[in-house]
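Changelog entry: the IMS import disulfide relay-system CHCH-CHCH-like Cx9C domain-containing protein record was regenerated in this release. Current contents:
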Amino acid sequence: MSGVLDQLLLDDIAKFCPQQFLNYHKCMSDPNVKDVTECIPFQGELAKCIKSDVPSFQKIQDKCADVMKDYETCIRSKGKTSECIDQLNSLRNCAQRVVQK
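Regenerated structure tokens:
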């Protein structure tokens, strides 16, 4: 189920943010990049585009705001994503419902 969600989001990201997606992917896969922090500017550009231009992500942000906030709060308080699996699953379930409509 989450694979379908991931694919839907990736397809939308590639469609609505093609240049930012490509720039970030190229940076991350470049063997000459010794430190992934070199890709942070590309990651920031991609994140900005996703938030402003990807309709499926905007719907998820709108409809799943409370669940997303719970997940972010958990990560901040516990410091590890591995300790926030329940919140992540809730977020994925909410996002899945949103993109299936």
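The chain has a mean pLDDT of 91.
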